[in-house]
Amino acid sequence: MKLDVISIDAKKSGTIELDGALFGLEPRSDILNKVVRWQLARKQQGTHSVLTRSEVSYSTKKIVRQKGSGSGRHGSRRAPIFRKGGVYKGPTPRSHAFKLNKKFRVLGLKHALSAKYLAGQLVILEKAELKDKKTKGFYKNLKKLGWGRTLLIGRDESPSGANFITASKNIPYFDILPVEGINVYDVLKRDTLVLTKAALAALEERFK
Question: Shortest CA distance to 7 belongs to which of 196, 148, 199, 134?
Fold first, then answer.
């Protein structure tokens, strides 16, 4: 499995051999779906809440006498059947997260990387470095490269890497993550996945 390596100027700078264990799998949608749901469930705040009968601020005075009124024997306006009363069995703050085996999460990332490779949406970049911090020049390079919504996985390899990060900040749909933060949801959400050579080496070392 070989792939061209390109420079930020959209020029070919060589080829690289990809690890089949990372990029050569047949992607399974059920695995990807479960890992994405696990990620989104962990992000969900779960702060939705209502006031129960014991939390509503209302008088506890008995409404009517016990007998002879022809009505129910209510003792409090806080009851759920009354207007402004407490809510019965309403949502309470909770965590929506569920457990997912670490091996399964690793497998999901491998399937996501393989899916990008098979779709032709994987790019290997020589270095994520620029000589200056100008967004205008970087944007021209992106037009040459023809990337759409892009996620770049890299490492801060030199002081020029800081220029690259600064120049890309104001460009919409262009995101950068450190190699330690790579995840299935962000990989699948973008049209193009860009890995620097250093990030690729770190990934292959990590999943040996």
Answer: 196
Q: For the chain, which residues make up each domain, given as ranges?
A: 2-45+96-206, 50-90
What phi-psi label fits residue 14: left (phi over 0), alpha (psi between -120 and 50 degrees) or beta? left
What confidence tens digit (pLDDT) does each residue in 157-193 have? Answer: 555 678 888 999 889 899 999 999 999 999 999 999 9
CA 195 to chain centre: 17
2-45+96-206 CATH, one of 3.40.50.300, 3.90.190.20, 3.30.70.1350, 3.40.1370.10: 3.40.1370.10
Distances (CA, A) of 96 to 25, 91, 125: 30, 12, 38
Would you give the distance in Å from CA 161 to the centre of its chain? Answer: 23
